[in-house]
Write a structure and sequence with these properties.
The protein is α+β, with helices and mostly antiparallel strands. The chain has 27 helices and 26 strands. The structure holds 2-(butylsulfanyl)adenosine.
């Protein structure tokens, strides 16, 4: 993205984020989820980091909270109620630590991790130990006085408990701090801050009740908590059975560690989360986050991340604040199940019944801890319902174990380069006609065999003698094809863990294993590559001979004979050059390849002159497939001109390995014995070929002797 594009995008993002914020904070109306709005903010934040010249004071990244409502009395906070900076990855967290290290070189940081509750922030002020003021955050400087409502929340003590001095000693408060504390408790004020929330259980019970009573349902626990507090009837707040957990003490009591603040809050009678944990370094913080990211569903409340705080309180003023929040706390968010990204392309996949299903190819984005690059669009009606165009910014969702889907288009973020989506006129797999039956939603390929043929092609490519991808067997391939994840062989190389995890039978581990196995086989032997393409009549041996063709031509170049110039540069690596080489071969030139007759030559020629095939090769190349430099080059062709037949079981290598070795040394393998056979290799329990060889007087070698020959 160039500077001008970034500027436009930043402006659009700011407008859209502000619009949603305004709806949400001022009207309690939520058009898009918190996760989607976070995703927009994150994109804005990242763009602003890349182009700081475009940061303006009114950017959503630079401000806190919402406007206070007119209906409540305004209160000025004793200290600003700030917001937190968000981190979304381990890298973000490491960068955060590095930034702090730059400010305080040589300093070691201790951390304290708290589950970050998703509710409404509340300031709780106690004058002479009695609850005197409860306020919302408002705009950070001025909040709304919601004391009466908060008084109904049982988790908030109306009077602070007076701890014994021994309890303070146990927490580690030295004498001056203990004195300061008692003075604040008895004669001054103590302010705590925390989060008022609704547990999932209460939320569900209330909604069931409201449903029975025909009342409007609560949208989500967070809105329910916020709405319950920011309304005028305390009786309604009481009925909502809110909970409240304290996460900081604002009053300076001369404590050393944040951890002590929370221990003190607990002995004062506040609820403090039992899951909080001291972490001696960032690695432990990352582990804490990872653990709860996995187990968050088990918590009794919604939790959207971990609030990571520097434990040493003396460092807080030294690290200071910047813009909307403190440098000494970071909200390390759990990966959201929704995110915002762009649709790059729409591809059509053909199902078992010939039905075409559109899939959106996305700019890769992390959702729920995995990278997503595709989302299902179901059918053309759905595309129309969403109003989706190519290049649109969309919200995608991946909830639990389902395939990600596009749930909403953000048309306000359009930049002018969007394109309408049309179903293809020809089938993208077989080139057959695509029709829409009247009264049906789906478009179909008229070729009944299209799906089955394609499945065979996919399986053939992944098989042992071709690309040889372990773990990519027929069952998995069928599953991938069904889900639209494998339209053709090039799609294998685009698969991400995020694509696989939602699929049945795919645990985290197997998704990881398969993507790794595919990545490890991106570089392919030319002979296997040609064989894998499944060109009619071009079996294993023809593929090998065709592959050798390039080497032969290379030799001819040296002899100054007619050669396509690309061929000699090609020598294996890039697919494009190899295509060019085969494309330039005429049918009669192909016929000169050993074993290639007119029918085979024509089939190869046609294959390399078909636009669908060329597009496929192009996609393979784009998806990172490369050709291994030819392996037999440089090896003495000691078995050149010799034909082998294998029979019986070899102990030290499989049949395929033996064939491979023979061929790489220039030899040939045949399946039946004739007088042209040079050697019959006999393993254990040889079959009839052995007898025939004996009859014809063909030389029979045992495994040991054979191994000597191929050494
Ligand atoms: S510390 C400077 N700790 O998250 C602000 N906040 O996104 C200090 N939150 O406004 C906040 N759990 O309402 C802190 N353990 C926790 C929290 C927490 C939830 C909320 C809080 C804050 C918001 C920022």
């Amino acid at each position: 993205m160039d500077k001008q594009q970034a500027k436009i995008r930043i402006e659009k993002l700011k407008k859209e984020i502000n619009r949603h914020r305004y709806l949400y904070h001022v009207y309690d109306k939520q058009e898009i989820s918190d996760a989607a709005s976070d995703s927009l903010k994150n994109e804005l934040f990242k763009l602003e980091m890349e182009h700081p010249e475009f940061i303006t004071p009114d950017s959503p990244t630079q401000r806190v909270g919402g406007k206070p409502l007119d209906k409540f009395k305004k209160v000025k906070h004793s200290a600003p109620m700030m917001s937190l900076f968000d981190a979304f990855s381990r890298e973000d967290m490491r960068d955060w630590e590095k930034r702090m290290e730059r400010i305080m070189p040589g300093q070691r940081f201790d951390y304290f991790c708290e589950l970050k509750l998703d509710g409404l922030a509340a300031a709780l002020v106690y004058a002479r130990g009695k609850f005197s003021l409860g306020a919302t955050r408002g705009d950070g400087a001025i909040g709304e006085d919601v004391t009466q409502n908060l008084r109904t929340v049982e988790a908030i003590p109306l009077a602070l408990r007076r701890p014994e001095e021994s309890e303070l000693v146990k927490i580690g408060l030295p004498k001056p701090a203990r004195n300061k504390f008692y003075a604040a408790l008895d004669k001054g004020t103590i302010e705590a801050r925390g989060e008022a929330i609704m547990t999932k259980k209460v939320f569900n019970e209330l909604n069931q009740k409201y449903k029975k009573e025909g009342k409007p349902l609560l949208a989500n626990p967070r809105n329910a908590a916020a709405g319950s507090i920011r309304q005028l009837d305390p009786k309604l707040t009481a009925a909502r059975k809110l909970d409240c957990y304290v996460y900081s003490l604002i009053t300076d009591l001369g404590l050393e560690r944040h951890e002590q603040e929370l221990e003190l809050a607990a002995v004062l009678g506040f609820k403090v989360l039992k899951y909080n944990k001291y972490c001696k370094n960032l690695e432990e913080v990352l582990a804490f986050h990872g653990e709860w990211e996995k187990n968050r569903e088990k918590l009794p409340f919604h939790c959207d991340g971990v609030a990571v705080k520097i434990n040493q309180l003396s460092l807080w003023p030294r690290l200071g604040t910047v813009g909307k929040g403190p440098r000494y706390i970071m909200a390390y968010k759990f990966s959201a199940e929704q995110a915002v990204t762009k649709v790059k392309e729409v591809v059509w996949q053909v199902g078992r019944t010939g039905c075409l299903t559109p899939t959106a190819t996305l700019e890769p984005v992390a959702v729920g801890g995995v990278t997503i690059s595709r989302a299902t669009l179901h059918n053309m009606d759905e595309i129309e319902r969403l109003g989706l165009k190519i290049n649109d910014t969309v919200i995608i969702e991946r909830a639990g174990d389902v395939i990600p889907k596009v749930i909403k288009v953000l048309p306000k973020l359009r930049e002018g380069g969007e394109k309408n989506i049309k179903p293809p006129a020809d089938c993208p797999i077989c080139g057959g006609k695509v029709v829409k039956a009247p009264g049906e939603v789906a478009y179909r390929c008229v070729n009944k065999n299209c799906y089955a043929v394609n499945l065979r092609r996919l399986t053939h490519w992944a098989s042992r003698k071709a690309a040889d991808i372990p773990g990519l067997g027929p069952k998995i391939i069928e599953q991938l094809a069904r889900e639209g994840l494998a339209r053709d062989i090039s799609d294998f190389y685009k698969l991400t863990e995020g694509d696989l995890k939602p699929l049945e039978r795919f645990a985290d581990k197997s998704a990881d294993n398969l993507t790794k196995a595919i990545a490890a086989k991106k570089e392919i032997d030319l002979a296997r590559f040609i064989y894998g393409l499944g060109i009619r009549y071009a079996g294993e041996k023809t593929a090998l001979l065709l592959a050798k063709q390039i080497t032969n031509y290379k030799l001819q170049i040296t002899n100054k004979s007619k050669i396509p110039p690309a061929a000699h540069r090609a020598e294996g690596q890039a697919i494009a050059e190899i295509i060019k080489y085969y494309q330039e071969l005429k049918v009669d030139e192909l016929e000169r390849v050993e074993d290639v007759g007119p029918i085979v030559a024509k089939s190869i020629y046609d294959w390399f002159h078909n636009k669908y095939n060329l597009a496929l090769l192009d996609r393979l190349e784009k998806n990172g497939v490369t050709i291994k430099p030819l392996e037999w080059r440089g090896k003495p062709q000691i078995l050149a001109g010799k034909t082998f037949v294998l029979t019986g079981t070899l102990e030290s290598l499989t049949r395929d390995e033996a064939k491979d070795k023979i061929r790489k040394l220039g030899g040939d393998v045949s399946s039946s014995v004739s007088k042209n056979t040079d050697f019959t290799v006999a393993g254990a329990e040889p079959g009839s070929k052995h007898d025939k060889a004996r009859k014809l007087g063909v030389k029979i070698v045992g495994e040991k002797e054979f191994l000597e020959m191929i050494k």
